[in-house]
Specification:
The protein is 3% helix and 33% strand. It is mainly beta. It has a five-stranded antiparallel sheet with strand order 1-2-10-5-8. A hairpin with a 4-residue loop joins strand 6 and strand 7 (89-93). The radius of gyration is 18 Å and the shape is globular.
């Protein structure tokens, strides 16, 4: 096996290597907003990944991510993920190193109850766009599969 150290975004000088035919390296200071891996940044076809930071004492609105699954890795902080199980709100307290899955169309909210420490998470989605659909309240997802 041959390894190449210090290779930038494309070996042998650049743009002649197709985007889908090489490994891409996106440095933390090169993020496009929150997006690190997307069709726009590296030419990915089915995957979106990014880093999100939520400040202390913050909460998102109630929302879902449409048809996209969202995988979340907690880098730092202690986020709380809130959804509705059909009877009541369920609160999942997470810690650094934890992973979470938010299925498609499931309404939820992310909270950072800590007064001092921000929350940093890495998110992977199964759609190219970071879909966020605000909803007026949390509710249990009803689908043909669960009815």
């Amino acid at each position: 096996m041959t390894t190449r150290e210090g290779v930038g975004t494309a070996p042998n000088g650049g743009d002649s290597v197709p985007l889908g035919n090489r490994v891409h390296h996106v440095r933390s200071d090169e993020l496009d907003g929150y997006a690190a891996i997307s069709g726009g940044t590296v030419g990915s076809k089915k995957l979106w990944m990014g880093r999100v930071e939520n400040p202390p004492l913050s909460a998102t609105d109630d929302h879902h991510h449409g048809e996209s699954e969202a995988g979340i890795y907690v880098v730092s902080g202690h986020p709380v993920f809130v959804y509705h199980d059909g009877t009541q709100e369920v609160r999942i307290a997470a810690e650094p190193g934890d992973f979470l899955l938010v299925p498609p169309f499931v309404p939820h909210r992310e909270e950072n109850p800590d007064p001092d420490e921000p929350v940093v998470v890495v998110i992977a989605r199964t759609t190219q766009e970071p879909i966020k659909v605000s909803v007026p309240e949390l509710y249990q997802l009803k689908s043909a599969e669960t009815q």
